[in-house]
Amino acid sequence: MVTIFNRKAAAPDTPEPIEKQGLSRRDLLKGGTVSLGAILVIGGSSIIHPQFAWGLETSNLKPETMATLIQLARDIYPHDHIPDRFYAIAVKPYDAKAGEDPKTKKMIEDGIADLDNRAGKGGYIGLGWEDDRLAILRKVEDTPFFQTVRGGLVTGLYNQEQIWPLFGYEGESYSKGGYIARGFGDIEWL
């Protein structure tokens, strides 16, 4: 069974958030005209984003848990100009940690289950409005689960050299002679 999550926010005139729907692989292939706007396809032990041609294989956590972690990462550190694949890279270490430590696996799976329970029908990832997800996160921000994920994302997301140019960061400067010789004194806004 393949599960498809439409991650676009519901349109303002849509009263209810978009729900997840289960499709068989045959139905998915037969459909042919499935809109792949902001869709994650979850099947087996993988998460695939067909539009942007990236995937994430899981070995210790459920793929649905990893998909929710990606959305959670985006909600904690929101950057509209950063593609989901970088958030997927940032949460991938949690899958490895879950394989090494059963307590970590339980904390993550239970934390995601708690988010889904608080979100109601469709779960956390099924909430179409960011404000609804943030309201849930404010209620759990003091939990060890949230603090662990948030803390790991600081380095997991921002230490990826591929996204530095998207923030205008050129990287470390020591090997290039330091910042003083590379525009430190440029004040073009005065």
Automatic annotation (TrEMBL):
Domain of life: Bacteria
Protein name from the UniProt record: Secreted protein
